[in-house]
Design brief:
The complex is a heterodimer. Chain A is mainly beta. Chain A has strands spanning 4-7, 10-13, 19-25, 31-37, 44-50, 53-56, 64-67, 73-78, 87-94, 104-105, 109-113. Chain A is built from no helices and 11 strands. Classes of the chains: A mainly beta, B mainly beta.
Chain lengths: 114, 110
């Protein structure tokens, strides 16, 4: 029944060591999003894909990259994690954009940087 | 930047009481959504209200929208311990993606 799956649920990486978080969906939605959420804060949108069209938020650091090889999968790459990148990373999907559709969220990956 | 601002930041009530959370936003919107997040989990969509709607119900949830005041409220009636969570409003700012407010943390004690 899982619709948006994130792996791993917990990830520990070392300062400066590249890390990849993965997200997959069984909903066949056009849009996939990546959010960063730090403790007691709102989810902050990093970027989203509408099909293969990549949309980067203006204030997303270059250290964060994303790939969407097909409809079902989307990856978040952090090229050189810093201590400030420790957070929960949430993947979400929706049928479309413009706020007209609800978003379906995965359970998140909690990233620790040592 | 954040489009929505929830108020209060934290709310503690007893089971059976009603909980009201407010959201204010800055720019014109087409619709507004509310989400719930249990501790350490992903968000769950609760309700979407369009800009031409003033009130919407879903079970024990009631959402109102006042576009003239750029504000929305979420009322949870007869609250339960399981309602303990953070609640976020979300709107579309510039562009096409939802932007979430800071959230209200609700604690319901039995």
């Amino acid at each position: 029944d899982a619709m948006v799956i994130q792996n791993p649920r917990y990830q520990v990486t070392q300062f400066g060591k590249p890390v990849t978080l993965s997200c997959s969906q069984t909903l066949n939605h056009n849009v996939m999003y990546w959010y960063q959420q730090k403790s007691s804060q709102a989810p902050k949108l990093l970027f989203h894909y509408y099909d293969k069209d990549f949309n980067n938020e203006a204030d997303t650091p270059d250290n964060f990259q994303s790939r969407r090889p097909n409809t079902s999968f989307c990856f978040l790459d952090i090229r050189s994690p810093g201590l400030g990148d420790a957070a929960m990373y949430l993947c979400a999907t929706s049928r479309g954009t413009g706020g007209l559709y609800e978003q379906y969220f995965g359970p998140g990956t909690r990233l620790t940087v040592t | 930047s954040q489009q929505g601002e929830e108020d209060p930041q934290a709310l503690s009530i007893q089971e059976g009481e009603n909980a009201t959370m407010n959201c204010s936003y800055k720019t014109s919107i087409n619709n507004l959504q509310w989400y719930r997040q249990n501790s350490g989990r992903g968000l769950v969509h609760l309700i979407l209200i369009r800009s031409n709607e003033r009130e919407k119900h879903s079970g024990r949830l009631r959402v109102t929208l006042d576009t003239s005041k750029k504000s929305s409220s979420l009322l949870i009636t007869a609250s339960r311990a399981a309602d303990t969570a953070s609640y976020f409003c979300a709107t579309v700012q510039a562009g096409t993606a939802l932007i979430f407010g800071k959230g209200t943390t609700l604690s319901v004690s039995s």
